Amino acid sequence: MVAQAQKQSIYTRQFMMLCLSTMLFFTSFNLIIPELPDFLTKMGGADYKGYIISLFTLTAGLSRPFSGKLADTIGRLPVMIFGALVCFVSSLLYPFATTIFAFFLLRFFHGMSTGFKPTATTAYIADIVPAQRRGEAMGLIGLFNSMGMAIGPFLGSKIAASLGLDILFYISSAMGLLSVLVLAGMKETLPKKQSFSPKLLAIKPNEIIDPKVLPAAVVMLFTTFSFGAILTLIPDFSIHIGLAPADKGIFFSVYTLSSFGIRFLAGKISDKIKRTHLLKVSTTLIALAMIYLSTVTSYSELLIAGALFGISVGINSPTAFAWTIDLSNEKHRGRGMATLYIALETGIGIGAYSSGSIFDNNAANFKYAFWVGAFLSFIAFLFLIVHDFIANRKEKNVHVH
After folding, report:
1. Which CATH architecture has domain 10-186+206-400?
2. pLDDT score for 5
3. Model pLDDT for residues 168-210, shown as the tens digit of each residue
4. 342: which of 194, 214, 223, 400 is 20 to 30 A away, CA to CA?
5. 382-390, long-range: CB within 8 Å, 24+ apart, which pairs?
6. Domain limits of the chain?
């Protein structure tokens, strides 16, 4: 049975359509990320740059319990479609956000997009791929995720420089709409789905977090701090070391491009060895990448730092997601994935806000924010060592008895 599952193809029409929708979705909101700090600065909000990402991730985190419950009740597809529609509407409204308050209100709303679509996407993947190929599937969906994250920032800065911010926002909106259209041609995978009722929005305490997946969530929490710091600081850091404004997105492009192949390879490896062993490698690499980033003073060094960070995250992400699916209850996969995403958004949000506060528009403080990210990734590494030690002790006790 195991051999048959391993031979079963994951490259189905449904899976590839999901990959395409994912790429369009991530392209949509990543197009505008490098330009948002300047957009906010022109409104007089230079001191609030840390909120650009943190407010977005706050909403995403708050909406996870709802998206997880709805994905397990009304179906995966409605939740994915809602998330992509939020992306479409939000980007369409940015040109009309002419005050700091309106801008952050829109960022708060926009965060629901990533609160809903990725949660249901990963639950959908768990439904359609064999258990023995979860890591490979998460690695592959991660490639398309990365494509959107690479295409977005790279083209976003170019479009803004040549066509202006309004056109950039409208193109971002169009990408969100295309993501919805792709989803419209897919089939639901939840066996017994319910009709939507407002009562489903009443979340009980035991419906927020899935305790079974907490080990994976802890690792995700400590490692995504670095990503939040990078999203917030790299545009300013790039200018600080001498890059042209149109090249502010180059780090993100190198980071995502370098994670392409490694995501797929790491996913396949995690299907063959213990997932925590691979996560020990990734958490160590994230810490080293952040330490190196703190020493960067030139364009070429920035590219190396982007590549190192991309490789480390490319190993970390699909492995953590596959581990979460392994740990979660089959009937509550939406809740399990929502728990992981809550940790992810919390880590990014804290990283974005804290790094913005540490930076405080003083270039001398960049390195301190990067060091904090390195330290927290090392804490994740230590957690994995302790987790495996306890798990091995329990396993030996079971064998003894």
Report:
1. Up-down Bundle (1.20)
2. 43
3. 999 999 999 999 999 988 999 988 889 998 888 888 888 888 8
4. 194
5. 383/218, 383/219, 383/222, 384/219, 384/276, 384/279, 384/280, 384/283, 385/280, 387/215, 387/276, 388/274, 388/276
6. 10-186+206-400
